[in-house]
Design brief:
The chain is α+β, with helices and mostly antiparallel strands. The protein is built from 20 helices and 6 strands. It has 2 domains: 295 residues, Orthogonal Bundle (2-methylcitrate dehydratase PrpD), CATH 1.10.4100; 120 residues, 2-methylcitrate dehydratase PrpD (60s Ribosomal Protein L30, Chain: A).
């Protein structure tokens, strides 16, 4: 493919040149630049993605997207996770991205305020399969896209998310564009155009949380970012200052512009070091409350019958994300602090996806416990922090606090927990040998000359 570097005949906003600076970092990153620890953490992200994608591959929303893609037709270029159908690369990016976010069990990042991995891997495996890319190229492109997503997320800050945009869909599209540009070996200017194309296509509303549209947001980001990089590689141009220009991405979707913070190197040099994995299959902003409730139940032998009342104290940011008061479906339950806390107090296995059923939401005893849980907001608590206080029937008050924003520093410990999660997700779908083969494929992606063969294990 050609790798043009055109400049549109418009007056560029030279406020900072941040789009080109971010594009340059993404375009010039090579596998040899990556420390071993970063390679391992990237492999952890891909392994986690494979598990959640396989588990979500036959959710109703995924089937609808598959049916629509088959009806539309297209070149059979890429594998669909856990399925026998093959579709075009962009269709695969959409469907696999949605499948991997269908259970809301994928990783998150605080600076991104969203789900960083799902759109990246969905797009890169589709494009990598089509181009017979090496595992090293996939890992490099993944890190390039991950770092781009987090820098742009930092640039916009919390106003973007707080005013109603789902960053997984919006910022995620730009991160995917940068990742695919890296895989396509595009230069800095062309990568900036890819980011600009993705910026004008980006959309996604937080008001859709609890519906099929939220998982589709991840697929949209994968599809649109891949599309943007493909167009840019063919000479399609946008503004190469799309992030900073007047009425550009930052002005329009955030009204904030934290350039210095966005371009500063995070602790350890990579945003990937502070990635957060989910070990409960619900919205990440409920995890601190879940962990606190589990601790209280375990340390104080709490039972449903002796909980008189419960107060969950969280940051106000949770109100518009995961404060569905009376959920009636399993999707809504994942975004209900009241329900998830009650479930954890009642001893539910919140790590098992089979726990999340619509029937559980209408269980009379669980509903009664949920109604004894109240949510209160305190600004001095971190966005991912929670304080849970339980008053027992005998008048005793016990409490526990947890901060879910702290990542696991030990890669071996993180890897072991992720493998347990991966096996729990895949063993109902794959036999032991195929599950082990898939894990081994991810583990060997960094080997020289290894091509992307993960798709062999992803189709039934």
């Amino acid at each position: 493919m050609p790798n043009p570097s055109p400049t549109p005949s418009i007056e560029l906003d030279q406020r900072t040149g941040i789009t080109l600076a971010i594009a340059d970092r993404a375009a010039t990153l090579s596998f040899d630049d990556l420390p071993r620890d970063i390679v391992v953490r990237a492999q952890h992200c891909i392994l986690d993605w494979c598990g959640v994608a396989l588990a979500g591959a036959h959710e109703p929303l995924v089937q609808i997207l598959v049916d629509d893609a088959i009806e539309q037709g297209g070149a059979p270029q890429a594998t669909l996770v856990g399925r026998s159908e093959r579709v075009s690369t962009q269709q695969a990016a959409l469907i696999n991205g949605a499948a991997s976010h269908a259970l809301d069990y994928d990783d998150v990042h605080a600076s991104f305020t969203g789900h960083t991995t799902v759109p990246l891997v969905a797009a890169l495996l589709a494009l990598g399969e089509q181009r017979n890319a090496s595992g090293q190229d996939i890992l490099t492109a993944f890190v390039a896209g991950f770092e781009t997503s987090c820098r742009i997320g930092t640039l916009l800050g919390t106003p973007h998310y707080d005013q109603g945009f789902h960053a997984t869909a919006t910022v995620g599209s730009l991160g995917v564009a940068a990742a695919c540009a890296n895989l396509l070996k595009l230069d800095m200017n062309t990568t900036a155009h890819a980011i600009g194309i993705a910026a004008t296509e980006a959309s996604g509303l937080k008001s859709m949380f609890g519906t099929m549209c939220k998982p589709m947001h991840a697929g949209m980001a994968a599809q649109r970012g891949l599309h943007a990089a493909s167009l840019a590689s063919r000479g399609f141009i946008a503004r190469p200052d799309a992030l900073e220009c007047t009425q550009g991405f930052a002005d329009t979707l955030a009204g904030a512009f934290n350039a210095e913070e966005a371009m500063a190197d995070p602790e350890g040099g990579y945003f990937l070091l502070s990635n957060l994995f989910k070990f409960h299959a619900a919205c990440y902003l409920t995890h601190a409350a879940i962990e606190s409730a589990v601790r209280l139940r375990t340390e104080h032998s709490l039972k449903l019958s002796n909980v008189a009342s419960c107060t969950v104290r969280v940051n106000p940011a949770s109100d518009k994300v995961c404060n569905i008061t009376n959920p009636t479906t399993s999707l809504e339950a994942k975004f209900s602090l009241r329900f998830m806390t009650a479930w954890a107090l009642n001893g539910a296995d919140t790590a098992a996806i089979t726990t999340y059923t619509d029937e559980a939401c209408s269980d009379p005893e669980l509903m009664a416990l949920r109604d004894r849980v109240q949510v209160e907001f305190e600004s001095d608590l971190g966005r991912m922090e929670s304080l849970v206080q339980v008053e027992t029937q005998n008048g005793e008050t016990v409490e526990a606090r947890h901060d879910a924003s702290i990542p696991i520093a030990d890669t071996a410990k993180q890897g072991a927990r992720l493998m347990t999660k991966f096996l729990g997700l895949t063993q109902p779908i794959l036999d032991e040998g195929r599950a082990a083969g898939l894990a081994k494929s991810v583990e060997t992606l960094s080997n020289s000359g290894c091509t992307v063969d993960v798709s062999v294990y992803l189709s039934r």
